[in-house]
Each structure stands twice: as structure tokens, then as C-alpha cells.
Design a protein that fits this description.
Blueprint: H1 2-15, E1 22-32, E2 47-61, E3 66-78, E4 87-99, E5 108-120, E6 127-141, E7 144-157, E8 164-178, E9 181-198, H2 203-206, E10 209-215, E11 224-243, E12 248-261, E13 264-278
Antiparallel strand pairs: 1-2, 1-13, 2-3, 3-4, 4-5, 5-6, 6-7, 7-8, 8-9, 9-11, 10-11, 11-12, 12-13
Length: about 280
């Protein structure tokens, strides 16, 4: 039902007259210090991810206060060290946004839905992603903006071992340091399913979750077991966006995430560099 409603709304935005689609493209490189989500040093593995994305977006005014936003995209990811994680897919996003008043200091509220299909080198990881979110934005003064967002997400994998559901709440504060340079600090709390990998036997993890199968993804002499755990994650993140010219934006981000369920606790330290281009 949700997917049909999103599709109908998306088709409606493409049918009405209004602003044209604005294309964009981007490339990114990211380092994840713990892609196995492991809590024992022997199982912690860091890896580099390379990505590319193309897309198009449009804004459709719906009167004085409302705007309909639509976007389509296609993206691909490559993991040079572990090609079983390589994936590619396409998706669409639709959002309704309302501005409560006139001027830059009027608050805005947005409702958003998104869907994506991903194919993967390891077939069981392929699947569909659905997302529903509500977001608010308030400018505090000419240089500072506060944002809040809550989202529900569901991933249905071809293999049930990769099915995941979760909800996440994010609070962010954005500072326009100078013209063309923006810093954003954010904190987030997520509750839901996470995939963790460890060399068995791990009775401590089994007390908190369930084993879903042996994996050869990480090229270990002994295959690692994957575990599905309903856990809580706390994330702190710092983003820097620097406008290079009228078409290019350089994005840097550093993230620290701690995930915990009972006696199971692991850390992720992530760094990313991206270049976005408006075509």
C-alpha cells in the first residue's frame, strides 16, 4: 500500500507543469573502521568503500505555503577489499513540505517517503528498502539553522538473514561559517536490527540475538557467523560542505557510532569524502 501511494504521488509530480528536473552527479570515498560490527579485536575489520551516484530532482510549488519535492537516483558502491559487498541500484523519493509563514525565519515541516531496489554481488544481500520520515527545520539567525528528523526504515533482503527494521531520530545544528562553507554537527539515536559478524562460537551474542548463517564475505580462513541483533546505536557526526564553484561542492564527514545490546557493544569510526556536481 505504501509503495503504491508513493508511486502515485511521484507520477503526479511528473505529470503537472512546473520547474524542470535538475540533474546531479557525485562520487565518494568512505572508510569504515569496523564493517563487521564486531566487538572482539580479532574480528574487527576496516575497509574502504567507493561510490558514485547520478540523479535528478524537481520542486513543484503547491500554492504559497506548500511544495512537493521529487527525486530519482541510481547509485553503485564498490568495496575493493571485499567485492561480495559490491552493490548497485535505483530509487525514488517524494516529499511534501509546508512553510509556516513568510521569510527566512518561518519554520518548515516535511513528510517524506522513499523506496530503493539494490542488486548485490552476493545475491542474498539484494533487496528493497522503504522509508518514511518526518522532518522539521528552523532558522535561528542568519548563520544558524536547527533541524530535527525521525524516520522508519525497512530492508527486505532476498535472504531473510538480511531483513532489517529500525527507527532513528536525528537532531542537527548547522552553521554557515562563511559564504560557501557550512558546518553541521548532529547526534542520532537508532533502535532496530543490526547485522554483526563474529568468529563462532559466540554464546554471548546468541544471548542477545540470533545467528543467521556462516559468511565467506570477509575472506577469513574460518568463515564468520552473521548475527541479527535488536540494538540501540548512538551517533555523533560532523559534516563540512564547501562550495568550490557554481556547480561543485566538496563534502567531508567524520562519524562516531556506538551500538549496544546487553553485553554486546561495538564501535564504528567512519570518515568520508565526496564531490557533488550539478549538471
Amino acid at each position: 500500500m505504501i509503495r503504491r501511494a508513493l508511486l502515485a504521488a511521484f507520477l503526479a509530480t511528473t505529470a503537472v507543469a512546473g520547474p524542470s528536473w535538475l540533474p546531479s552527479a557525485g562520487t565518494a570515498a568512505a572508510w569504515n573502521s569496523n564493517i563487521t560490527n564486531a566487538n572482539r579485536p580479532a574480528d574487527v575489520i576496516g575497509a574502504l568503500r567507493l561510490g558514485a551516484e547520478v540523479g535528478a530532482a524537481r520542486r513543484q510549488p503547491l500554492g504559497r505555503d506548500d511544495t512537493l519535492l521529487a527525486a530519482v537516483s541510481a547509485r553503485a558502491e564498490a568495496w575493493p577489499r571485499f567485492d561480495g559487498l559490491d552493490r548497485a541500484g535505483a530509487g525514488a523519493r517524494i516529499a511534501w513540505q509546508r512553510k509556516f509563514g513568510l521569510g527566512a525565519f518561518a519554520p518548515t515541516l516535511a513528510l517524506e517517503g522513499a523506496g530503493e531496489w539494490m542488486g548485490t554481488r552476493e545475491p542474498g544481500r539484494a533487496g528493497r528498502l522503504g522509508l518514511l520520515a518526518i522532518a522539521a527545520r528552523q532558522r535561528l539567525d542568519p548563520a544558524w539553522v536547527a533541524r530535527g528528523r525521525h524516520e522508519l526504515a525497512r530492508h527486505d533482503g532476498r535472504a531473510t538473514a538480511f531483513d532489517r527494521t529500525g527507527s532513528e531520530t536525528t537532531l542537527a545544528l548547522e552553521w554557515e561559517v562563511t559564504a560557501g562553507w557550512r558546518l553541521t554537527v548532529s547526534v542520532a539515536r537508532r533502535r532496530g536490527d543490526v547485522l554483526a559478524y563474529a568468529t563462532p562460537p559466540r554464546p554471548d551474542i546468541l544471548r542477545e540475538g540470533r545467528a543467521t548463517g556462516l559468511m565467506t564475505t570477509f575472506d577469513r580462513e574460518r568463515p564468520m557467523m552473521s548475527y541479527l541483533i535488536d540494538a540501540c546505536s548512538l551517533t555523533g557526526r560532523l559534516d563540512s560542505a564547501h562550495t568550490l564553484d557554481t556547480r561543485h561542492t566538496l563534502l567531508l564527514a567524520a562519524e562516531y557510532r556506538e551500538t549496544e545490546r546487553g553485553a554486546v557493544r561495538y564501535l564504528n569510526r567512519n570518515l568520508s569524502l565526496a564531490l557533488d556536481r550539478r549538471l
